Amino acid sequence: MSDNTQHAAIDLEWANLLSPQRRTVLRGGGLVAALAASGLAGSVLAQDGAVKRAKDVKPAATGKSPWGEHTDTAPTPRPVSVRPGEETLPSKPRAYTDIESYHAHIYFDEDSYQKAALIRKWAAERFQIELGDWNLEPRGPHVTPSFYFGFTNDLLPVIVPWLQLNSLGLTILIHPNTDDPRADHLYYALWVNRSQPVNGYAMKKPGPGEPRVEQIFVNTRPTVKIETSHA
Ligand code: ZN
């Protein structure tokens, strides 16, 4: 295969991934020009195969990296798993009755807090739940502002569809409470809309005398009958 045929084949592969509009650009040989115009063509392969930096790119620092000089050949340690018991293929399913209760964490930011306030009000008016405080800063494993409510297992078949239809587009994490908080947040999670990072790696089972999150103390007094299509 000549160099040109090879390039054409690669172009075609890309063209198939891209939109028809871009395909026209590729056919016209305009890809390189488009990249150059966008500034993406700043790095080019030198004769020895290493990437040569464009002149206007801020140069790398001189001196030694604080990470050491041989990080590229360091061994690859296995990180701790978020799976309970570390088993990839357990010999039998886990009993679903290990779930003691659920939490719903509703995430918001400075642009969406009013939506969060509406979901909070609507939920408190309709469900017997344990409604937590506003967390205006990251708290526990939650990396953005949030509030949560806890609920007993019997409400799951109502609260999941209710949150699906009433999320107002916010990101919501629904997690079970078993005896393994790390798995609850990172491995057993159920998301409404897109997911977002959860910093749950350091979570451990609560020690003796520490509060047990799975206990639900109802603190709402519902006053509104939940809406259904058959009223
Ligand atoms: Zn939670």
From TrEMBL:
SUPFAM superfamilies: DOPA-like. PROSITE patterns: TAT. The keyword Membrane does not apply. Keywords: Dioxygenase, Oxidoreductase. Pfam families: DOPA_dioxygen. InterPro entries: DOPA-like_sf, DOPA_dioxygen, TAT_signal. GO terms for molecular function: dioxygenase activity. Signal peptide: none annotated. Residues 51-92 are annotated as: Disordered. This is Aromatic ring-opening dioxygenase. It comes from Janthinobacterium violaceinigrum.
